[in-house]
Amino acid sequence: MSTARDVMAERFPTIRPDAPITEAIKLLETASEEEGRRVFGLMVTNDEGRLVGIISMYDILILIRPKHAHIWGTIDDMDVSGLLEAACERARSIRVSDIMTTDVISVTPDTSIMVILDLMIKKHVRRVPVVEGDNIRGIVYLSDLFRHISGELTRECAALRQE
Amino acid sequence: MSVTAKKSTLSGVSVREAMRMEVIRLPADAPIHKAIRLLIKYKIGALLVTDEADVPTGVVSKSEIVAAYYASLPLDSPLEHIMARPPIFCRAEDSLESALETMRSTGVYRLFVCEGGREELTGVLAYPDIVGLLYGFCRNCEKSLVNRRKAQELDEGTTRLRVRDVMTPSVVSVPEHATLAEIMEALSVYRFGAMLILDAQAIPCGVVSKTDLILAYGRGFPLEETAGSILMSRRVVSCHQDEFVEDTIRKMVFSEVRRVFVHDGDPGEVKGVFSLSDAVRVRSGSCRACVASRI
Description:
The structure holds 2 protein chains of 2 kinds.
Chain A: H1 4-7, E1 14-15, H2 21-35, E2 41-45, E3 51-56, H3 57-64, H4 69-72, H5 83-91, H6 96-99, H7 113-123, E4 127-132, E5 135-141, H8 142-162
Parallel strand pairs in A: 1-2
Antiparallel strand pairs in A: 2-3, 4-5
Chain B: H1 3-7, H2 15-18, E1 25-27, H3 32-42, E2 46-50, E3 56-61, H4 62-70, E4 89-91, H5 96-106, E5 110-114, E6 121-126, H6 127-140, H7 145-150, H8 163-166, E7 173-175, H9 180-190, E8 194-198, E9 204-209, H10 210-218, H11 227-230, E10 238-240, H12 245-255, E11 259-263, E12 270-275, H13 276-282
Parallel strand pairs in B: 1-2, 4-5, 7-8, 10-11
Antiparallel strand pairs in B: 2-3, 5-6, 8-9, 11-12
């Protein structure tokens, strides 16, 4: 049975908790370019390199969401220009540690991919850090897990067709 | 039902129409730092605390967190140590008037909403949600400022409420070198949500709100830190005292602040404060002529 070790990405960006969220956004962009895929989440590590949280694109979007959208959302003739700029202006002073998720579900390199699959579905997460002791070994992305599983699935189909 | 209530256009309005469906909650043993992150991220004033069986047992608002900061509680203290209890409920089918009355009699700013005869929690109703509903109502009114402007009938200005009519005509401020502990003391004495900060020339240079204070707590700032060092921006949201209430409410909605500082032409000289709760207090969206919108 495959384990986290077989599907995890071993190159992963990390960010410090006191970094401003604008830095997290830049890092998501550069990581996406380097890895050739969209990276939407970053592991947050302290001075000792230990995992202390995760910040995702979704955390940042929740922060930017207008507080009173339910008020003007129904008023169609209201001038909402400048709203996004104002929200971004306010968000600039927010640090990664202010909004990151600290309940991080992690697995070990030996955790079975079926257990990881179950975890991701149950907890609504798309990425799971792989940790051994105090050290981060990698990260499992839902997309990689799917690719691994779909490889198995289609091989089975191809074998059936040949029979 | 009183005569005024019968006339009220909003009197048929139920809690359901103003409430929000999203209820942010945490278990009673969750640490304070986690509550801070949720309040900041979701831009809410309070969250619901539940026990092991997911039954609501208390509420933690920014005020409870500021009090914990003042008492120097460790950030990993459980919410059950600081929460206010019990949470106050209303029903989705209740009228807004009765919900407001519950808020008034219990002295809380938000109610948690249950559906019908069931215990199931379906939403939360807070002060700004009611202001929002009123605001939307006023905008749709044919007498509204916007519709008047469209019809180019601005001569009605004299009957409309201006900020000076409803503002609190005094302001409490602290100097930039005041400590966070001193700001918290002042906020608690005056029961304010934010404090105007003055620079060495006594010119307003920023605002420290409860949101700024809980951010500072989460980031580990000591209580001896000065106001100046945690100022998020050197900007004070202000308005002229002759502005229409309607325009100023719009400004608050957009700037995501609960209060604006009022001046008489010189923003350096603040005359008063106009808050979202003042807007609820006058209990008309914006228009003196409009008795109907009073709830």
